[in-house]
Amino acid sequence: MNSGSPEIIATLVKYAVMFGVFINVxxxxxxxxxxxxxxxxxxPGPNRVGPLGLFQPLADAAKFMFKEDVTPAAADKLLYxxxxxxxxxxxxxxxxxxxxxxxxxxxxxxxxxxxxxxxxGVLLFLALSSLAVYSLVLAGYASNNKFSLxxxxxxxxxxxxxxxxxxxxxxxxxxxxxxxxxxxxxxxQQAHVWNVIPQILGFxxxxxxxxAETNRLPFDLxxxxxxxxxxxxxxxxxxxxxxxxxxxxxxxxxxxxxxxTLFFGGWSLPGVHLTGWLGAIVGLVTLVAKIGVCxxxxxxxxxxxxxxxxxxxxxxGWKVLLPLSILNLILVAAMTLAGxx
Length: 341
Description:
Largest sheet: 2 strands, antiparallel
Strand order of the largest sheet: 1-2
Number of domains: 1
Strand content: under 5%
Number of strands: 2
Radius of gyration: 21 Å
Distance between the termini: 47 Å
Structural class: mainly alpha
Shape: globular
Helix content: 55-70%
Order of helices and strands: HHHHEEHHHHHHHHH
Number of helices: 13
């Protein structure tokens, strides 16, 4: 066995672990969203397929597999087929730079518990996540449907507007750490304090921008059923629609993973310093638990707040969040120079 084989095997194992976590986000959140919606609206929700409706996601998956897959006659078939694939690619690659535990020593080798321990971790995450907008624009354009096209145009304008504020809130976290590695950000928070405390303003900007980036209520203008039927995926059905469905929830989980890593200590717990296999297991469970709390907030907000008008959405992005993110960046820079962070 050559010297590179253990690293390759370790990388594949780490990706399999993270992929196994994120691939199950959509079916689990499908059930959680329906049950939470029913609870908030005082109705039963799914309760027929399995106990408490727990097997409902399996029934939905079977339905998607056996439904007729229709391609509109006037659609641009190549782009139409590419869009769902492009939606999944960023969703299943962004989490490769998220650390999920302390470094693990196996056979004298130190294995960082992150799939891709690259020096440009945060920049790579932002670059990969920004590719998601191409799938929405392609789906809207290629469907040859005016409602889909409007949804795609809305998606592109919305994501560009809110990516600026989100990126600036992320940059503020990097200033005191002086590193792009998410593992270094986690280590800094272990040594000092969770970033959500000194950078509460930046966290607020990141939180609101995350809702807009994932097209979730109250920022789901690219879909907006009351106006655009289903927006950019109006003409999609069967497994192609399921691909968009999977990508939405996986993107939510990936942004939640980034958020908890930047502001809530990632896989670490205050005052707890574990190493070895126990540290790896506890770290992964802790990260998944924090992501679960964030996903619950996504669901609660969806069924609590009404949708913004489009002009309100754009005004909030450019006139409120962007100035706040710039102010937060200046404050963090000043605190860093003063030695307070």
